[in-house]
Amino acid sequence: MLYFFEDFVLDTGRRELRRGPVSVELEPQVFDVLEFLIRTRDRVASRDDLLEAVWNGRVVSESTLSSRINAARFAIGDDGTAQRLIRTLPRKGVRFVGSVREQQEGTPAAATAAPATGEKPGGIALADGPSIAVLPFTNMSGDPESDYFADGMAEEIITALSQCPGLKVIARNSSFIYKGRAIDIRQVGRELGADFVLEGSVRRNQERLRITAQLIEANAGTHVWADRFDGDLKDVFDLQDRIAESAASVIEPKLRFVESERARRKAPQNLDAYDLWLRSVSLASEFTEESLAAALACLKQVLEIDPSYALAMATAAHYHAQCFLQGWVKDQEATKAEGLHLAWRALDLARDDANVQWMSAFAIWVLALDVQQARELFRSSLRANPNSALALTMAGWVEAVNGNPAEGRRLVERSLRLNPCHPHGWLMTTGMALAEIADKRFGEGVVWAEKALVQNRRSAVVLRALVVALVNCGKVDRAKMILQELRKTEPHLTITKWQESVALIDEDLVKIYTEALRVAGMPE
Questions:
Q1: Which pTM does this prediction carry?
Q2: Residue 209 has pLDDT above 90, yes or no
Q3: Cys-Cys with 41: which of 70, 96, 147, 160 at CB 3.0–4.6 Å?
Q4: Mean pLDDT of 46-53
Q5: What pLDDT, in 10s, does the model give residues 231-265?
Q6: What CATH number is attached to the domain comprising 405?
Q7: 440-473 burial by CB neighbour count: b if 16+ within 10 A, else e?
Q8: CATH number at residue 158
Q9: Both 24 and 95 in a single domain?
Q10: Residue 187: which region, alpha, beta or left (left: phi > 0; alpha: psi -120 to 50)?
């Protein structure tokens, strides 16, 4: 069923909320709350109604319930003060009060997304992959002499974004023609052939600076991301670097998310190699055995269309390695052979691509147990793109469990500073847990592993780390409960089978893990 209200569409079949052609990111429970309120909008939904519909009758705290309702409001541009669409009736419940039009999915009028073409109406053809234009920042200080700083800020961000593999950045000479002009972002997109536009402002107040930046999807004119940065004038160059790094590290995954959701909405017959690659990324983010298998199937189609697509090869190698770590492979030797073949072939074709390097490095580390080769590839990837949150994180994993926990912690902490709200944040919190456990700081390891578990309850790496940290903190009962969760993910896992991959970590850590898993009840 499709529910239309204002400029939103709630698609229950695809479990998507869209604003124009752009998908709005929602947690599953937030989606369920919004769907239930819209579906039952003819009456007030009580607390018990919501608990039954969303939590299957399980009792949750008032703060949890309120946070999900507030998140639903935020997603549709409402808030607890205005209550324009979702209204709270004291001591009664909650009701959706907006005007809604229903439509069965598949009817002709349901085609609300933008056409899946490679060209913007009235504009120039788009390049393969997402493209972005950075507009000159607006000087809000009232001091014309501060223009140099506003221009420099935009130039720094252009330079930083240019290091993001696969992202096409419009040259400064093209985007700066709009300086001082009142413009329509959609017009900029058409004229420059840009999918996204980044704009911002600089305000100088004595010795303090405030800089804002916002990312806009050009075709729809809707906001994707916005942030604010404050600092001292004496640290102006450090501040420029920090903003450029942060913008690059945050924007890259945001762009990828929007692009992958766009590809996911296309009809299968319209998918080309790039769209299929994006669809694989979207599927893999669900992180289930089925979704990773589907992602690998998409990548197989990609390589049938374009046998030299190096990024697709490296991505497939990375997913094979993730499946291997999860115990989601039926033939370990065949998985190793396929994953390593793809990794090395990708490197042969695109050795200078930072994403190809780190994905291949991860596969080589997991599937070939080659720590040194993986380290070299991670270093090369970070030289090419020092702001890649995922490259920093996975390099941190390698260091943390191979005798260098301090360096592993440093790498992951930098990743967290650059992008604290990354869509795959569980990889970062897992990296911190691994570093703390390797450093025998088990209490901190529990804290970080618990955070990772909230973000991803299916990760075998997270579950194993939490068991080990809990046992070493004396919390054996909790460790045994987590081990049962681990056994659901890896039902055939034994200590012997786990030890077959112990070359991934140093000897001291092997002993710590082995003893803790044994205490928690893992069979031999």
A1: 0.60
A2: no
A3: 96
A4: 88
A5: 777 776 666 666 666 666 666 666 565 555 555 54
A6: 1.25.40.10
A7: ebbebbbebbbbbbeebebbbbbbbbbbbbbbbe
A8: 3.40.50.10610
A9: yes
A10: alpha
